[in-house]
Amino acid sequence: MAFVQLIEYTTSRPEEVAEVLADWQQSSQGKRTARRVLSAKDRNDPKRFVEIVFFDSYESAMENSQLPETQEYARKLTELMDGEPVFRDLDVVEDREL
User: Fold this and answer.
1) How do residues 24-71 score in pLDDT, each as one tens digit?
2) Residue 82 half-sphere exposure, CB side, CA atoms within 13 Å?
3) Are strands 3-10 and 36-41 parallel, antiparallel or unpaired?
4) What separation in angstroms does the CA of 34 have from each of 3, 42, 84, 96, 98?
5) Which of 28, 84, 96, 97 has the highest CB neighbour count under 10 A?
């Protein structure tokens, strides 16, 4: 079953967050199990961001989270956040094009 992880956070340093994400993409190339990352900014609160990370399954997400590159990404990202992130672990029950 497909799986997505939603990460919501606030930051006053979005450019640095984008750099950290780009570094993770490069360093985890060929190792990561994440298939796609969608990053979005809240129009009503320009410091609030959401990342939606797509995986083939919950198990592949857990494998990805154990990668040293992902651990380092998470550590760096947390340093750039204004407070604690909120994580949502979601099993995909339907995925269709409209």
Assistant:
1) 999 999 999 999 999 999 999 999 999 999 999 999 999 999 999 999
2) 9
3) unpaired
4) 10, 23, 22, 19, 24
5) 28
pTM: predicted TM-score of the whole model, two decimal places: 0.89
Beta bridge partners of 49: 9, 41
* Residue 9 and residue 42 in contact, taking contact as beta carbons nearer than 8 Å: no
Paired tokens of 82 = 């204004």
**In sequence order, which ranges of 1-98 are alpha helices (DSSP H)?**
14-27, 58-65, 68-80
- Which residues, other chains included, contact 46 with Cβ-Cβ below 8 Å and sequence gap of 6+? none
Half-sphere exposure of 89 (CA within 13 A, CB side): 8
Cα distance between residue 4 and residue 57, in whole Å: 8
Q: How far apart are CA 51 and CA 40, in angstroms?
A: 6
What tokens appear for 38 in the block?
């969608």
